[in-house]
Write a structure and sequence with these properties.
The protein is built from 21 helices and no strands. This is Glycosyltransferase 87 family protein. Keywords: Cell membrane, Membrane, Transferase, Transmembrane, Transmembrane helix. Belongs to the glycosyltransferase 87 family. It is a multi-pass membrane protein.
Length: about 450
């Protein structure tokens, strides 16, 4: 067999993904263009940053977290100026700050170069995430990945923060699980949790479906690998830079209610209980209630739910009950929402709500102290229409997913005798435990 013949099968498999990769690269490029007004100097004027809708954490944190002079977690700065991200993101920031310092002597030029280098990585993560999502979806639903590649909300939010790194790792985890490579799935899950905390919600989804199917060995191997990977990247910082390492966890615990959260609405309007009680407790209790509901649904449904459906419901519950709901959190949910229910009507409705929120948050901030530019911004009531727009449209999608779980014949992914293309060991697995069997 010639080398050309040997490569042909791989080329044949790769060709269908090429258009998706190119469209994802277009989405990454458009996301860069959206922020050009700031990239060319607008970051130095907060009003201009907000009115041009081009804010990004990447540029200001280069200065505010001492990246221009010191290393994350080891920096000799006040505790509240330590990097407030898990260690994988902290080390990504460290790497690009080193390169920026080597390339540019001037601090301002370094920050711009730091932004450009970070955006290259994030763009690559978007492309990788789209291709991985397409592989997870399988040949019958491959083009659903276009929602992740170039949807308006993704383009607008792509470079606000480093979330796309965790997105690529999460999609890689899902593909490894689909292909029954549990060690790789665990390692990628552990790294994803060490990048952004939200992939921890997928542990619950895997646990519930494992409980229903009795496939404990793959689950335990995956969890062991995830814990091992998390420890490998975290323990050195826990030992050598404890104060810097724990900043993320202290910040997450102590952080008050913030932009985008429904709790902010309740506090702003002075609602009894919901607007007065401790937000951390309210959030944890409400998340626990929703997770119990997801568990009951998973174990009581007439047919085992798909993995993507439970991941979506768990992640949506986490976002809806959180103390903060930043614009870039849409990047967490898009691939799982599409994998759970690739129906364009509710997805379009949700995307419109996300775009409106993206516009509303910056117009709201420009009218807040210390800028107080009421002539350029919007007030509380208008802003909260955007907050509730996201909540309501995601709740609608959750309701449709619940319906699909309870009535599998309505699930468009399960047509043509397909069970769970992303399910790995769960695909076509018989039930070992359900609530019905437990109470017989």
């Amino acid at each position: 067999m010639t080398s050309t013949e040997a490569r042909a099968p791989f080329v044949a498999r790769a060709v269908p993904y090429l258009p998706l990769g190119l469209i994802a690269a277009l989405g990454a490029t458009l996301a860069y263009v959206v922020r050009l007004p700031c990239r060319t100097g607008g970051w130095n004027d907060q009003v201009t940053t907000y009115t041009n809708f081009c804010y990004s954490d990447i540029y200001p944190l280069y200065f505010d977290r001492a990246l221009a002079t010191q290393n994350p977690y080891f920096a000799d700065v006040p505790f509240d100026k330590q990097v407030e991200y898990p260690v994988v993101l902290g080390e990504v920031m460290q790497l690009f700050s080193w390169i920026a310092r080597a390339l540019e002597p001037d601090h301002v030029a370094q920050a711009v170069r730091f932004y450009d280098l970070t955006v290259i990585l994030l763009g690559a993560c978007l492309v990788a995430g789209v291709l991985l999502m397409a592989a997870v979806a399988g040949p019958t639903r491959r083009w659903d990945a276009l929602w992740y590649a170039i949807s308006p909300a993704v383009v607008l939010a792509a470079y606000i923060n480093w979330d796309l790194v965790a997105g690529a790792l999460s999609m890689g985890m899902l593909l490894a699980w689909k292909r029954q490579r549990q060690v790789a799935a665990g390692v990628l899950l552990g790294l994803a949790i060490a990048t952004k905390f939200y992939p921890l919600m997928f542990v619950g989804a895997l646990f519930l479906l494992t409980w229903r199917t009795g496939r404990w060995r793959p689950f335990l191997v995956t969890m062991g690998s995830a814990l091992g990977a998390w420890l490998v990247v975290n323990v050195p910082f826990m030992v050598l830079a404890w104060e810097g390492w724990r900043r993320f966890y202290v910040f997450s615990q102590d952080r008050g209610v913030d932009w985008g959260s429904p709790w902010l609405f309740f506090q702003n309007k002075g609602w009894p209980v919901l607007g007065e009680a401790d937000v951390s407790t309210l959030g944890m209790v409400s998340l626990a209630v929703m997770c119990v509901g997801i568990a009951v649904l998973t174990l009581a449904a007439p047919r085992r739910p798909r993995l993507a459906q439970i991941c979506f419901l768990a992640l949506a519950a986490f976002m809806m009950t959180n103390k903060v709901w930043s614009p870039q959190f849409v990047l967490w949910l898009v691939p799982f929402a599409v994998l759970a229910r690739p129906n364009w009507k509710p997805l379009v409705l949700w995307q419109l709500a996300e775009v409106w929120y993206f516009v509303a948050i910056w117009l709201y901030l420009v009218a807040q102290s210390p800028l107080n530019r009421d002539d350029l911004g919007i007030g509380d009531d208008t802003y909260f229409t955007a907050v509730w727009g996201r909540i309501i449209t995601i709740a609608i999608m959750m309701a449709f997913v619940v319906r699909d779980v309870l009535r599998p014949d309505k699930d468009v992914v399960r047509q043509a005798d397909i069970d769970d293309q992303a399910g790995g060991v769960f695909d076509d697995a018989p039930d070992r435990f359900t609530l019905q069997s437990a109470f017989r």
